[in-house]
Amino acid sequence: MASSEAPFQLKDLLTPATIRLHVAASDPGQVIREAGQLLLASGAIEERYIEAMQQALQTYGPYMVIVPGVALLHARPSDGVKRPCISLLTLEPPVPFGNEDNDPVKIAIAFGAVDRQKHLQALTMLTQLLANEQALSAIQASTSAEEVMHIIAAASPA
């Protein structure tokens, strides 16, 4: 898989400024808004991307809760993504999204990609992280954004 551009890594897209720990949210809509605000504040998305993530949840239901305790929040690249980005929230208390197999959500990850290829690249990286139960437990127990960054860097393939 040769490419003129080096693939970006999860640790390149997530920054301490796009991580918030122990967020108290009353419902899935507030989780999406909190995660989206971090991306908006970083300049990576437009406000309408947050609304598109909200709409995706309303339209398609809680499919975004893809593994036990983790929601992967996203919308289409055309919904206002300016550059590839990821935010991460740990939720305390966990928030039910309505997914009977994977609720409640303890970690919410919002991501935006600028095109289909980058979208799939981001999903691949996130899937690798989501398959690492030890890393997810460590993230959930983290007390600082820097600690989360260290866990992700250690869990990411070289």
UniProtKB/TrEMBL annotation:
<keyword id="KW-0813">Transport</keyword>
<dbReference type="InterPro" id="IPR016152">
    <property type="entry name" value="PTrfase/Anion_transptr"/>
</dbReference>
<dbReference type="Pfam" id="PF00359">
    <property type="entry name" value="PTS_EIIA_2"/>
</dbReference>
<dbReference type="GO" id="GO:0005737">
    <property type="term" value="C:cytoplasm"/>
</dbReference>
<keyword id="KW-0597">Phosphoprotein</keyword>
<keyword id="KW-0808">Transferase</keyword>
<keyword id="KW-0598">Phosphotransferase system</keyword>
<dbReference type="InterPro" id="IPR051351">
    <property type="entry name" value="Ascorbate-PTS_EIIA_comp"/>
</dbReference>
<keyword id="KW-0963">Cytoplasm</keyword>
<feature type="domain" description="PTS EIIA type-2">
    <location>
        <begin position="12"/>
        <end position="155"/>
    </location>
</feature>
<dbReference type="GO" id="GO:0016301">
    <property type="term" value="F:kinase activity"/>
</dbReference>
<keyword id="KW-0418">Kinase</keyword>
<protein>
    <recommendedName>
        <fullName>Ascorbate-specific PTS system EIIA component</fullName>
    </recommendedName>
</protein>
<dbReference type="GO" id="GO:0009401">
    <property type="term" value="P:phosphoenolpyruvate-dependent sugar phosphotransferase system"/>
</dbReference>
<dbReference type="InterPro" id="IPR002178">
    <property type="entry name" value="PTS_EIIA_type-2_dom"/>
</dbReference>
<comment type="function">
    <text>The phosphoenolpyruvate-dependent sugar phosphotransferase system (sugar PTS), a major carbohydrate active transport system, catalyzes the phosphorylation of incoming sugar substrates concomitantly with their translocation across the cell membrane. The enzyme II UlaABC PTS system is involved in ascorbate transport.</text>
</comment>
